[in-house]
Amino acid sequence: MNEVDWLASRFEENRAHLQAVAYRMLGSVSEADDAVQETWLRLSRSDTSDVENLSGWLSTVAARVCLDMLRSRASRREEPLGGPLPEPAGSGGTAGDPEGEALLADSVGMALLVVLGTLAPAERVAFVLHDMFGVPFDEVAGIVGRSPAAARQLASRARRRVQGTDAVASGDQNRQREIVDAFLAASRGGDFEALLLLLDPDVVLRADQAVVQMGAPAEVAGATAVAGTFAGRARATRTALLSGNPGAVWTQRGEPLMVFSFTIAGGKITGIDMIAEPDRIGELDIVY
After folding, report:
1. Which residue has the higher pLDDT, 258 or 85?
2. Strand 286-287 to strand 237-242: parallel, antiparallel, or no bridges (unpaired)?
3. Max CA distance (Å), the chain
4. Start-end ranges of CATH 3.10.450.50 in the chain?
5. Whole-model pTM?
């Protein structure tokens, strides 16, 4: 076996792990595929004769590629800091392996990916590498370009955000549904002040590509702007659970055309994701 074939074989041995790391960092199967492919290109162009731990080398390269992608995404004003809503299984990638995509998405969970999407790039990378994959902070520090102590702080801030959301998710589901009910009622009635009371000041409304094609902006930030977007609307929308998370569904002739996934913390709505892509809606377990 020549050197190229040997490298390709070793890379394939690590592909599933690299895909898992990239997906958790990027929240997108297709972007994770791109990151893994870029990792292979960098491997093929590098002299690895002195590399003792090729698996670790590949993980480091993949993490740096993902960090660059997250920073590039955050610098584009038309997208939210964490990028578009995470892709569920079935949206492409993992070398065309639907079963692999499903396992990948199920292992993380849409709610967690939405929370990760609110983190700054370095926070997200530090949290994913250390808390999800056990990478020591000394190594994380080299990837994010910070000291080990600073890398630890990045992961700690991210962990508090994730744990806070987890606590809400595991709390009183009825209370969350009441908040969504109140939001929809205020929206239908055009009660701008009531909407403001239900929204976190830093709430972010995100739209997937299908919603954008309907004429909506990719992102609306801030309670005033989001309240203005919903005031006087939602008349054909009803409350529902979307795979166990509080949400709402806009139906036509009994079929869901758009779903609204709500993130709630401290009794306030901190995020709303509008989804209209049929494949993504089809992945959700909708309970009215």
Report:
1. 258
2. antiparallel
3. 71
4. 173-287
5. 0.51
